[in-house]
Amino acid sequence: MDFVEYSIFSILGPVMIGPSSSHTAGAARLARVARSIVGKPYNKVEFYLHGSFAQTYKGHGTDRALVAGALGFNESDDRLCTSFAIADEMGLAYSFQPVELEGAHENTVMMKFYQDDKLLSTITGSSIGGGNIIITNIDGFDIQFSGKFTTIILKHRDQKGIVGEVGTTLLADRINIANMSLNRTGKGLEATTIIETDEPVSDHTIELLKQIEGVLDIMVINI
What we know:
By secondary structure, this protein is an alpha+beta fold. It is built from seven helices and ten strands. Helix 2 runs parallel beside helix 4. The longest helix is centred in the N-terminal third of the chain and has 14 residues, at 25-38.
C-alpha cells in the first residue's frame, strides 16, 4: 500500500495536518482506549467513520492515528506516522469505511475488533476536541465515559441494592467515585453501570465486585 511519510510534528505538534488534535491525537486515543476495553488478542479491526472523520480521514492522518491506537501506541508516539507498515508487519488487518451514525458527533468512529472471523467487540466513540474523547457505546449498550479516569464497566441484573453494594466495596478500598452512569435494557432486565474513579482499582477489589450477587460481568480499565 502506497502512503506518504509524515513527521510526527506535522501530525501532533504545533504544525498539524488537521484543523485540530481531534483528527489525530483524539483518534489515536479512541482506538487505544477501545483496545483496553476489548482486553483480548485480535488480528483485525474495522473502522467505520462518521461525519468529518469520514470526509477527511486520509488528509488529516486520522486513519494512521486509529491504527496506531489499535496497536497500543500512545498519541505522542513517533511510530504513529508509520502505523500502517507496523500493523502489516504484525499481522493486524485494518479497513476504513464511511458510515452514517444517527445523532453522533461529527468526529465519531465505530470500531469492530476480530480474532480471525470472530467478532470480539464493537466500540463507538467520539473525539470532541483537544485530544479529549468520549466512548459512547460498547456492544450495543449506550454509555458515556471519557477515558481520563480509571473506569469500571459493570454488567449486572437490574435489581435493588447492587449499585449501593458496589459503592460500599469501593469505599472500603478508599476509592473515590468521580462519575457514575447507569443504562438498562428494561426494568428488572440487564443493566450496565459505568463508574469512573480517582484511584486505580486493585485486583482484590475487582474480585470482591465480581462476588456481588447480580453482577454478571466486570471490566476495569486502569488509565
